[in-house]
Amino acid sequence: MQLVLRRVGSLAVLAVASVLAACGGGSGTEVAQAAVAPSAKALVYSVESREQPASAVQDVARLKDRSVRVAIAPARIALGPLDQSKDAAVESGGIGPRQIGTPRSVSQTSTASATLQQLQWTPTANGGRIAALSFSADGAHGIRLGVLVRKLPGSAVLRVYSQAKPSAVFEIAGQEVLQILERNQTAGDASDAGRTWWTPDTGGDEATLEIELPAGTPASAIDLSVPRLSHIYANLSLPTADEFEQAKINESDTCNLDSTCYDEYASQRNAVARMIFVRDDGKAYLCTGTLLNDRDGTGTPYFISANHCISTQTVASTLRTDWFYRSPSCNSRTLSSSTTARTGGATLLYATASSDTSFLRLNEAPPAGAVFAAWNANPQALGGALVGIHHPAGDLQKISFGNLASLSNCTSLSGTNFTCSGTSGNFYRVTWSQGTTEGGSSGSGIFSGGALVGTLYGGSAVCTNKASSDFYGRFDVAYNAAIKDWLSPATSASGRTAVYRFFNSSTGSHFFTASAGERDFVINTYPAFAYEGVAFYAYGGATAGQSAVYRFFNKSNGAHFYTIDAGERDFVRATYPSFEDEGPIWYAQTGAGNGSTAIYRFFNKSNGTHFYTISQGERDFVQATYPVYQYEGPVYYAWTAN
To answer: Can you tell me the distance from the alpha carbon of 430 to that of 406, in angstroms, rounded to the nearest whole number?
Structure first.
């Protein structure tokens, strides 16, 4: 309480202040809410599908239009043609994702000091600075930059775009990048790979990385480099009319069936996404995965694929998913206009080689119309009809029809080779009557009666040999081993909600809200508020074991103050009339536990505002870089995932 007493500043009132306070949803009147205790739930072994409604909260679009901004002249770094042979695609009889890209070293930005020498800083209107690096690689069909981050301010903004496409700029806040990398490190990866953020693919032979630093941050305070990039050598574009008869690197074999021709499987095909990811060595790959519903229909984006595709958190962080990646009409061989990409990566929840299962939670909500697939965790009967939906060779979505021939025990030999034998084990042996699978189909689901029952490990199925088999990891085995803890948890309670963060360049302070409506209102109304993405997760309603976090609006300086301490709340109410009480805005923990992470608080001695972060990296950066910020330690506990 004394902390607040001596730290409230008296600055000029901002014109934006009263309007922003009004949109906060708080009236100063405390609403009593009964705590909701978790209730016991029965374990289930099958669920029906559900469609993502148009009303579902979506993440803010990361693509911005650079054409309305002043162009920044980048330092240019040119790599010649790829001078090493492409890694061979996986042949039938093996396992493995389809490789589409290979790493290339970049000597000009291999270290932080070398990178700083390349950056040519330009002042910004708000007192910050901005610089850009342009990387080109002759012959590339796409480029993903491996940005090695050791120090970065949370309110920095990173942008990725192609000089040829100024209207499509991917934008991400530094605090989001820090969270991605901390997720890798929390999972045990302390290597440089765990500290590397892989940019989205620009879709051409050039990629520009733009870095904007907030006011008061010297260029010398950042520590990042781009020691390598992933050169995408596979042409993932689609055939134009004059290319219709030409073989393409991403075109699957001739016996594959267009899934768009089979509307009776519309629900299943809308649950399947093409996956693109980068491994620690910088090689890029394709696989296929499926969105899964949970028992309570929470809309949590659980996603299943193969362990041999993604088995670590560091790789999961690089994941891009392409939704509705198929033809708009039967056999049209053109791309549907509804195709949508999500580039936010995923959180790895469970991975095992025993059934070749990778179970993840996507970090971004799937688009409206995507389906959370039905699943069946009961053992399947031999001879039953099965349907596979997948992206062979990364091509437009295909469908295959077959039968469950037997159970099997599969063992990895070396590299992409494996052997399967016997009539029992953790895998289903499947034979196809129509269609097949290829590299890129790995991790895709098979469906029985419309419900997912397995994920593709590998096999020898090809168009020319229908007697060959494919092998699928049994979903029931993975479910009973671990996945049930997420898809059918023992208890359920009110779910966590995202808390969004903004940086107000007018006040130098941050604003947080758990309301997607308020988030969008601020984005559309107040250009001084730079959206920085999801800061953390908390509970949207009163829940057993959680306490209310209160928000105050300081009418004197236009900033907000947050506290979980009821005593501090009462002291502010009684002592500072300029602090307008906006009531409980989310619920969190006063102590550690339940998988929570500390929220750290700083006091800015120059303007009387406070700063909050869940990121240890950002905490350390602020302590090392900004002496005006006085560290106040953990103030409550929230979560880094929903």
So the answer is: 7
DSSP letters for 8-47: ----PPPTTHHHHHHTTS--SPPPP---B--EE----SEE
Distance between CA atoms of residues 593 and 220, nearest Å: 37
Residue 35 pLDDT exceeds 90: no
Alpha-carbon distance 211 to 382, whole Å? 57
In a 13 Å sphere around the CA of 57, the CA atoms on its Cβ side amount to 17
What is the predicted pLDDT for the residue at 85?
53
CB 556 within 8 A of CB 605: no
Distance CA 315, CA 279 (A): 5
10 Å Cβ neighbour count for 229? 29
SS3 state of residue 157: strand
- Identity of the amino acid at 210: E
No. of helices (H) and no. of strands (E), the chain: 11, 41
Helix H or strand E segment including 567:
helix 566-575
pLDDT in tens, 467-523: 899 999 999 999 999 999 999 998 775 579 999 999 998 888 999 999 999 999 999
Pairing between β-strand 385-390 and β-strand 629-638 as defined by DSSP bridges: unpaired
Q: Read off the tokens for 62.
A: 């990361």
CA distances from 381 to 49, 251, 385, 448 (A): 22, 34, 9, 10
Give the pLDDT confidence of 214-266 residue by residue, as tens digits: 998 999 999 999 999 999 998 876 444 333 333 334 578 889 999 999 999 99
CA 41 remoteness from chain centre: 29
